[in-house]
Amino acid sequence: MVAVTLLIVVLRYAFGQGSIALQESVMYMHGLVFMLGIPYALKEDAHVRVDLLYARLSERGRARVDLLGHLFALLPVAAVTFLYSQDYVAAAWRIHEGSPEVGGLPGIFLLKTLIPVTAGLLALQGAAGIARCVLLLRRRPGG
Predict the structure, then answer these.
(1) Using an 8 Å Cβ cutoff, are 136 and 57 in contact?
(2) pTM summary value
C-alpha cells in the first residue's frame, strides 16, 4: 500500500501522470486491511477498550465482562451486519459493480463482499471468545 501510494505521488508530481486505478487500488487495499484486521484484532485482544475498570478486575471478572460483551454486543452487531449486508452485496454482484470513475477498478463488488465476510469472521471469533470465557469461568478458582 505504501509502495503504491509512493508510486502515485511520483507519477503525479514527477511525471504529471495520474491513475484512477492506482488510487482506487490503495482504497481497496486499505479496506482489505481494515476489514480483515477487525476480527484479527479481536483474536489478539488488540482492540480498543476502555480499561478504567477492566484492568482492575480479576481474571474471572474480565471473563464475565468479555462473555457479556460477546453475547450482548459483538454477536448481535455481527449478526445484524451480516444480515443487512446481504442485499447490498447481492445487488453489487448482480451487476458486477465497478468504479463509477473512468479508468477505475472493476471489482467494487468484491470489496463489498468483505462486509459479510468480516461479520462472519467476527461471529466466529466471538464464539471462540465465548467458549474461552465459559471454560475459564467453569474452572475452579486456583485450579
Answers:
(1) no
(2) 0.89
